[in-house]
From TrEMBL:
Signal peptide: none annotated. GO terms for molecular function: ABC-type transporter activity; ATP binding; ATP hydrolysis activity. Coiled coil: none annotated. This is Sugar ABC transporter ATP-binding protein. It is found in: Cell inner membrane. One of its GO terms (cellular component) is ATP-binding cassette (ABC) transporter complex, substrate-binding subunit-containing. It is a peripheral membrane protein. The keyword Transport applies. Residues 4-234 form the ABC transporter domain. GO terms for biological process: carbohydrate transport. Belongs to the ABC transporter superfamily. The keyword ATP-binding applies. It comes from Labrys okinawensis. Keywords: ATP-binding, Nucleotide-binding, Transport.
């Protein structure tokens, strides 16, 4: 079953065409990485899936439902950004359960959801701390915890690791991969980092100037790149 269908989607800012007829379809449980250099339109596309940007043309469907005109909260998604603003005056626990509280989830259910997410992310011992008492990697885990408790159909990540140092980036990569396996969830993940893309993706879309150049499993993209641009970008042997 397709969880996400991006159907001939376009985006323009006045006369500037940022995305030109992008079509991508992925199945439930897929880990799609949008890979490409800065400015190629990755964040724009992700924001359109999230409902944070309007769609100039085409259609986006989540679990079969056209979402073009739905607000972000009605799209069954959760998003983790590069700058994952946590509420500084709240504890980790309060940060994670805040969204559920707003939606009127009962205290008992909230507690159970926080416990399960914290357990999965190994941050149970941090639940009573404030964000200022956490490392960068720990904050990123809390941001993921916030997303997990929403139990969305679709997780959206925009360069979530780019503010972390190199060692932590590798650790968190493993963490995200484990999370994907454990939750069996569908993920769309934006990065300009080829290695990150190749290690995480079940499907990778290599983008350039608002066009998907190649969409396939990472190994296929690497072994049989669609064109010279893709070959160079993913570092395929000549
Ligand atoms: P990426 O995430 O791949 O780095 P973006 O999606 O952020 O790229 O941007 C793609 C292109 O769209 C860039 O040329 C950027 O300057 C342009 N762009 C993004 N947002 C806007 C905006 N609000 N108004 C005008 N141009 C924009
Ligand atoms: Mg971006």
């Amino acid at each position: 079953m397709s969880t996400l269908e991006i159907d001939r989607v376009r985006k323009s800012y006045s006369s500037l065409a940022v995305l030109k007829e992008v079509s991508i379809s992925i199945n439930t449980g897929d880990f799609l990485v949008l890979l490409g250099p800065s400015g190629c339109g990755k964040s724009t596309l992700l924001n359109m899936i999230a409902g944070l940007e309007t769609i100039t043309g085409g259609e986006i469907r989540i679990a079969g439902k056209v979402v073009n005109d739905l607000s972000p909260k009605d799209r069954d998604i959760a998003m983790v950004f590069q700058s994952y603003a946590l509420y500084p005056t709240m504890t980790v626990r309060q940060n994670i359960e805040f969204g559920m509280k707003i939606r009127g989830v009962s205290p008992g259910e909230r507690e159970a959801a926080v416990k399960a997410a914290a357990d999965m992310l190994q941050i149970t011992h941090l639940l009573d701390r404030k964000p200022s008492q956490l490392s960068g990697g720990q904050r990123q885990r809390v941001a993921m915890g916030r997303a997990i408790v929403r139990q969305p159909k679709l997780f959206l990540f925009d360069e979530p690791l780019s503010n972390l140092d190199a060692k932590l980036r590798v650790d968190m990569r493993t963490e995200i991969k484990r999370l994907h396996a454990r939750l069996g969830t569908t993920i769309v993940y934006v990065t300009h980092d080829q290695i990150e893309a190749m290690t995480l993706a079940t499907r990778v879309a290599v983008m350039k100037d608002g066009v998907v150049q190649h969409l396939d499993e990472p190994q296929a993209v690497y072994d049989r790149p669609a064109n010279v641009y893709v070959a160079r970008f993913v570092g395929s042997p000549a």
